[in-house]
Structures are given as C-alpha cells and as structure tokens.
Design goal:
Elements: H1 5-11, E1 19-25, E2 32-33, H2 41-49, E3 55-56, H3 57-67, E4 72-75, H4 82-96, E5 101-105, H5 109-122, E6 130-132, H6 139-148, E7 151-154, H7 156-163, H8 171-175, E8 177-182, H9 190-209, E9 215-220, H10 226-234, E10 239-241, E11 251-256, H11 269-282, E12 287-291, H12 294-311, E13 319-322, H13 328-339, E14 345-348, E15 363-367, H14 373-380, E16 390-395, H15 400-407, H16 410-413, H17 427-440, H18 455-465, E17 469-471, E18 474-476, E19 496-501, E20 504-510, H19 511-517, E21 523-526, E22 529-537, E23 542-547, E24 552-573, E25 576-596, E26 602-607, E27 613-623, H20 630-651, E28 658-666, E29 671-678, H21 686-692, H22 694-706, H23 732-744
Parallel strand pairs: 4-9, 4-10, 5-7, 5-8, 6-7, 8-9, 11-16, 12-14, 12-15, 13-14, 15-16, 19-23
Antiparallel strand pairs: 1-11, 2-3, 17-18, 19-20, 21-22, 22-23, 24-25, 25-26, 25-27, 27-29, 28-29
C-alpha cells in the first residue's frame, strides 16, 4: 500500500495533530497442521480443487476433535478460516452417513445467506443439499427444506419462533441431527445471549426426546472466557481450540482524535468519520464505517453524501447506510449492492460487524469504541481480508472512555479479549424460556434442572399465577397458541412500536426505545431523510411521523431513581463497603435536547411527561461514611463518572448495558452511596463481574483521571453527556482521592 491514498492521508500535515497514534502489525505467515482423520475421497478431492489441501493448525485440531465426537469451541481471529472448522466435519459426516443432518446457527440472516454460498462451494456434489431457513424463506419451499436439506442454516430468532414450537414438522430432521454449529459465539452476551442459552437448551431437550445427541461446534472471536460462555449457552463443556495458525497481511491501525474547536470541545466524531468515509471513497478506497448507534449511522450517511456531492467525484448514491430498523427489503438491497461491489462506502451499525465477506474492502472506520475489544478486532478485521493489507481508523468521541483509549492505545492493541457476560438464569428470561419449553413439550420437574437451577422454583410460581398448569406430574402451557412470538429475545421487553408515515411502515422500535426516541417532537433519521414524530400512541403501539427537514436531532434526557432490595454479598472497599444485590430502578424520560445536525451543539429542549419505566435488576453499590464537606460529595460524583466510563473495558459490554447513580445522602441509609447496575430487568452478570473485579476497575478509573493533563475535569476524563445532573457538582481532585482509596482496597 505504498504511496496509496491511505499513506497519503497518514502523511498529510493537515491531519498531523489529529492522528494520535499509528501502529502497524507486520505480515504474519501461516502455520499448518496435519489431519489425523482420513477424509472421504470425494471431500478430499473437492477441497483439492478449491486449493484447500492444507489446514491451518487450529483448523486441523478442530476438525479432528469434532470427528472424534467431542464438542469444540474455536477461538481465533477475524478471517482465520473458522468456517472450515465446521464445514469439513459436516461434509465428512454427511458423506459417511447420508441420512445425517446438521443445523448451523448464525446471529443474523445476512451472515447465514453469506455462509450458504461458501457451504455450497465446498459441497462435493448435489447429493449434499444445503438451504437457509429464516423469515425470508418462501412458504412454498419450507416443507421441502425440512424434508430434504442435509444442512439447514438459520438464526436464533427463527429457531425460537419458527422451528422449536413446530418441532413435530421437524421430527425427521431432529432424529437425524448429528452436528450443531453456533457461529460468532462472542455475540451472545447480555439479554440476547441469555435468551439464546435458553433456546439452545430447548433445542437439546427436543433432541433428547427424538433420541439424537448432536455434537456442538462453536466459533468465536477472541474472548477471555470461551469455556464458560459455551457452558452457559449449551449446558455442556467443550474442548477449546485457540492456536491461531492463519496468516494476515500488513495491518495499519490509526487512532484519530478530532481537533479541538474554539470552545475547547472536539469536532463531532460523526462529522470526522463521514469526511474520512467520503474522502476514502473519492480515492477509490472501499470503506465501511461502523457506528455504535442508529442515529450516528444516519448522521454519518448524511454528512458523507454531502461531502462527496460537494467534491463531484463520486455519486452520493455510492454511499449507503445499514442498521436495524430498516425493512427486510431495504436490507437485502443494500447487502447485495455491497457484496456486488456497487458501493464505495457504507455507514453501518454493528449489524455488519459479523463475518460477512463483503470482498475487496480496503478500510474500515470505527466511529467510536464499539463496546468490547472483541468487537473492536472484529470490526477492524473487515478490511484487508486474507493476506491483503488493510487500514482501520478508530475515531474517538469527546468522552472520557474514548479519550482514555486514545491516550493509552495499548489497552486495545494488547487486549486479548475480555470476558463475555450472559445469564440464562435471569428470572424473567428463564420464565419466558420455560413458557416456550412447556408449549413444545410438557415439563417434568426432574428435567427442569437442565434448564437452570432456579427453574423448578420459577415453574412452581408460574403454576400459582396460572401461566403454567401442573397436572399429572408435568407443567403444561395452558394454550394452543405458541408463546414464542411474544418473547423478544433481542431486548428486555416484547412490545414494539411501529413507525408509520401515513399508511407506510418505516420501521419498528422497542417500547422503551420509543419512549426515549419516538415521543411527540422527536426527530427520526432514516436513510438520509428526516422525519418528525407527531404522535406516540402507546396503546396502539404506533408512532405517527411526517417527513420534514429540520436542522436538529433529538437526544433524550433521563433520570433514574434507585431502591434497594435483598443484599447478596458484601466486602469492604476503601473506607466504605461494596454490596452486590437486588435493586429496583425507575427510569424517567424528562425531556429531550435538540442538537444541531451540523455540529451536535444544543439548540433547544423539549419537556416531556412520559410514563415511568420500573424494573427489578441487580447491581453494585458503594456505601461510604458521611461527608464532612461539599468537595467529598463532588468527588463521589466524579468517581461515579470515571467508574462508569471504564466499566466496559472490564466487563466487555456496551455503555448502554449499565446504569449508574450517586447520592450524597441516600434516603434509605442517610449516608453517601454510589450505584452501578445492569440496565436489564433481572440482570445479566455485568455488575456482578464488576463486584468481583472492583480493584482492577477502580485502578482503570484512577488511571483515566490521572492520564488526562487537565486540572479540573474535561470531556476527556470527567464530563459525561449522559450525566443526569448536567455535569454539575464535579470535582476531579476529590474523585482521584476516592479512587485511590478504592484501588488500594
């Protein structure tokens, strides 16, 4: 890539003060292993035709382990050839026993369709039939797929709603099921992962009923606890394969810090990302810009199109957007345009993070930290596939966590993958999964332990409330209508709000999200068009919008009220004590800030009176002795900001997965308290992990504050756009003093 547009950008003096760090990873040669198992002659011949006659070390180890009958989890980097780790054993099994079946589970439909092409390419003949089965599969093809397909590719949503509830139609397939593939395992964290753990247990329960015992092979990006995640998802233990023998070309990582403006705030990262996306597209560099929120993806799309329109080199339509909330038809059109090379730039959310091979991608721009180091490496790995060179640019937002990462890039470059948190035993999630399991087959008390330790107690409570009925020694679901469609496995609530423009549905939004972002007066951005919400009808589940160009977008103003429930355990922490236990959280949407589309500055405010959202969860609280002066209170508030900022680095979650609050005098104890909790009903393990790692957590927060040269606190270390009190009463010196006590334990 010498003298390429990328090198020219890096050498441009105009950007010298914005490029905070450049790191180049050298070329890594391949390391090969040898299979101990003899492959079927037809499969061996087909692999030879495709030039796949040698296996990387991890591929050879994984294939042998699966063919020996073991469950396996493969944990290697992006583009390391994990697909062969399950495709080869699947084809070998199908050829050895033609009646056998395999089920591939991918987190998205796009990924399943992409992998179908690779699978069909490796198939040694038409007698091994493969097909996708998801919501887009035509009704007239579904029966033939159930009957004739050897390998079915699907996603957790379809497995949950369309396969398990109607398992009688799949009886022949399930009786012959020999292999289950769980790809992109690291994605199954939080609420989604906790539900998927229940779904996989339901699948394995039905396999037992049909007298099959399939092997499971899971694949993941590098994470810190692959064995634990596999066990929580499946209830089984697996052999871990993590010796990555794959090669890669030269990779250039750039940490880009937007310039300071006259008011000492940094230029919008959305705008910088868009300019990079547009500029690289103008140079013919195919680029994917990852954005961590839907609104960011829409803003980057809008800015990038205007950038290239002004330059008149690239057609603005060569740049598109991609995120959840688009209709299936829109997503398919954009995916095809990207795969076919018709687009030069794409502004996307993490929906495009997974292993879809878009081909010919030269660069990625990460518009902010994606939440986990695994996602950082997955997104960066989309560029420079195989041994081709690639560029990844991380554009830092003007907030404490991302400015910390710009100051200390080694925290990302040397990261080995944090632990993934999920909790299939979350009472609300487990109750939803028990309803679904009981519908599929009545539940015997003796088998409930396989679905989770508290399952029997929860089932008994559901019997008392009438959700289940205990008769003749079994728990029955008392309805002929399947409960699965009412269980939203990707969110904490099942209700959705439809976004309507006249009689046309523009998209959907969860109820909790609609309260924050689809209230009257809210601005909704969709594919470079602006819509204004005229009405939110929660009873009908409809938000009515009109298309209208306005120079601002809206950002909700939230407030949280905390009440404690049962305490589970406690430990001394600094001069106070850390308590982990149950909490009741009430979230109030007080209003919305109107922010300028062109720079993100606040230009107005909308006051709202929305219904509160109350839920039970788990969290950590720090209790301290009474304060003797106001500076200590301001220090506690500052420590809350710092601890909240670095928490994702410790537990590998999105910032939106955690909530926080602080009280100079907590009403229940009349003493100072700081709270950090799972922002999901019932909790999914994030705050518990923070409780266990509280010293490392406090040390990272302390380093965040000390590494910033400012004296009183700034957006790079202390100020937070999410602060419910508008960053009032903050003291950096007091925060450092408290964090030093907490880090020392």
């Amino acid at each position: 890539m010498n003298d390429s547009p990328i090198d020219q950008i890096l050498a441009d003096e105009l950007f010298a003060d914005q490029i905070a760090h450049v790191e180049k990873l050298p070329v890594r040669p391949a390391r090969f292993g040898k299979l101990q198992t003899a492959l079927h002659p037809r499969l061996k011949e087909r692999l030879g035709v495709l030039g796949l006659d040698r296996f990387y070390t991890h591929q050879a180890t994984a294939v042998d382990a699966v063919l020996e009958g073991r469950d396996v989890v493969v944990v290697t980097g992006t583009n390391s050839g994990k697909t062969l780790c399950y495709n080869v054993p699947a084809m070998q099994t199908m050829l050895a026993e033609p009646a056998c079946r395999a089920l591939y589970i991918f987190p998205t439909k796009a990924l399943a369709h992409d992998q179908l092409g690779k699978l069909e390419e490796i198939a040694p003949g038409p007698d091994v039939r493969c097909a996708t089965y998801d919501g887009d599969t035509p009704q007239n093809r579904r029966a033939s797929i159930r009957k004739a397909a050897h390998i079915v590719l699907t996603n957790p949503d379809m497995l949950h709603i369309g396969i398990l509830p109607g398992h009688q139609s799949w009886s022949r397939f399930l009786k012959s099921l020999r292999l289950i593939v769980v790809d992109e395992m690291h994605v199954y964290r939080g609420v989604f992962g906790s539900h998927v753990g229940g779904i996989l247990r339901r699948l394995l329960r039905l396999c037992d009923w049909y007298r099959s015992h399939p092997r499971i092979i899971a694949c993941s990006a590098t994470i810190g606890n692959p064995s634990t995640v596999f066990e929580r998802l499946t209830g089984r233990t697996a052999s871990v394969v993590d010796d990555d023998g794959s090669p890669h070309g030269r990779r250039t990582f750039v940490f880009w810090n937007p310039p300071l403006q006259d008011d000492q705030t940094r230029l919008s990262a959305n705008l910088v990302t868009a300019n990079l996306l547009g500029g690289l597209a103008e140079c013919g560099v195919r680029t994917l810009a990852f954005c961590r929120a839907r609104i960011s993806a829409e803003l980057v799309l809008r800015y990038a199109r205007r950038h290239v329109a002004a330059g008149k080199i690239v057609d603005p339509d060569k740049i598109e957007g991609y995120r959840a909330g688009y209709t299936p038809k829109e997503r398919r059109q954009i995916e095809q345009a990207l795969f076919n090379g018709e687009l030069l730039g794409l502004a996307a959310t993490s929906a495009m993070e997974l292993g879809v091979d878009v081909g010919g991608l030269d660069a990625v721009v990460l518009n902010g930290y994606p939440g986990t180091s695994a996602s950082f490496w997955q997104q960066a790995g989309r560029a420079g596939r195989g041994t081709r060179d690639g560029l990844a640019v991380f554009v830092a937002h003007d907030d404490p966590l991302e400015q910390f990462l710009v100051r200390e890039p080694h925290r990302l470059m040397e990261s080995k993958g944090e632990s993934v948190a999920l909790n299939p035993l979350n009472p609300q999630i487990l109750a939803d999964q028990l309803r679904c399991a009981a519908y599929e087959r009545p539940l015997a008390p003796g088998e409930l332990s396989e679905l989770g330790e508290p399952a029997l107690e929860i089932a008994q409570e559901m019997d008392r409330s009438g959700v289940l009925q205990f008769q003749a020694g079994y728990f029955f679901y008392p309805s002929h209508e399947a409960p699965a469609p009412s269980v939203n496995i990707r969110g904490s609530g099942s209700e959705e709000v439809r976004l309507m423009v006249g009689d046309t549905e523009l998209g959907t939004m969860e109820r909790w999200r609609a309260l924050q972002n689809a209230h009257k007066g809210a601005v909704y951005l969709h594919r470079d068009s602006t819509y204004l919400v005229e009405e939110l009808d929660l009873e009908a589940g409809i938000a009515r919008l009109v298309r209208k160009e306005v120079p601002y977008y809206t950002d909700p103003i939230l407030q949280s009220v905390i009440e404690t429930a049962v305490d589970v355990r406690e430990q001394r922490w600094g001069k106070g004590r850390a308590v982990f236990g149950g909490l009741t959280v009430t979230n109030l949407v007080l209003g919305a800030r109107m922010k300028s589309v062109e720079g993100g500055t606040v230009v107005g405010q909308i006051d709202l009176d929305m219904p509160p959202i109350t839920f039970a969860t788990v969290g950590l609280r720090l209790e301290l002795p009474p304060f003797t002066n106001e500076r200590q209170a301001a220090g506690l508030h500052g420590a809350e900001h710092a601890l909240t900022a670095v928490a994702p680095l410790i537990v590998g979650c999105d910032r939106g997965d955690l909530g926080s609050a602080w009280y100079p005098v907590f009403p229940e104890t009349l003493e100072p308290a700081l709270f950090l909790y799972d922002a999901t009903p019932g909790g999914v393990g994030f705050s518990e992990e923070l409780f266990q790692q509280r010293r490392a957590w406090a040390s990272a927060a302390l380093q965040l504050e000390k590494s910033c040269p400012c004296l009183e606190g700034c957006p790079g270390c202390l100020l937070s756009a999410r602060c419910e009190s508008g960053n009032e009463l903050l003291d950096k010196v007091g925060a450092i003093a408290l964090l030093e006590e907490l880090a020392a334990l």
